[in-house]
Fold:
Amino acid sequence: MRVRAVLAPAMILTAGLCLTAAAAGCTSAPRSRPPAAHPVSATPGHSAARPTATISEPVAVGCPAAPYGPRTYAPGSSKTVALTFDDGPGPSTAAILAILARYRVTATFFNIGTALATRPWLVREEGDAGYAMGDHTWNHRDLVPLPAASQAAELSEASAEQRSIAGTVPCAFRPPYGEYDSTTLRLAQQQRMGVWMWSVDTLDWMAGGSSSSYWVQRIIRLAEHGGALPHPIVLMHNQRKGNPATVMALPAIIQFYRSHGYLFVTL
Structure:
């Protein structure tokens, strides 16, 4: 059974994304689908093909038992916000880490296995700084059309890559494009990874690498829609092509949530 990644209307905050006539035709989160980039490059120990299908799922040592099903709200009893960055590490990751450190806030990075292998030093930097690192599959494929063995390989290969680089395993998982089915949810639970979606979509990937003020302000405005929620999860990206507009918008986003009394948390 295919489970569509559709949130309750109260949690979908991208209604304001059609900020100009040029933005017509936009859709609601979590259906934002960046172009199917993420080409797989050959790396030491890995071929350029997708992970070899396997049905054995390594249990993430140190992770608590995970519930079944997706969550769309940041944890915590008081006002909390979770800043999340998908598809990295990428060229913008170092700048994002520097901003987070400057403002002393935490975040969660949902990394892709092939990107982990390309920039291992950033993986170690994320881990050493105490940020949460989640599994975003090996090479960002839509999981729903895949058989169970291939889905399991996408999850376990990315987890194994993080373990080999940083010595840790992810306890959080986010499916590419927000697409999942009952098999995806079962596999994530078996690997002790909670499934985390989002409730605020900045649609920053649409900037396409631009750093123009239009995109920066658009990202900020969409991120600020989370101020209507007690526990927003904000979706941003640090893709391999770079997200300079996200980097430029991030300080304003942090200041907005801080000024509104939110506690920054990881997933």
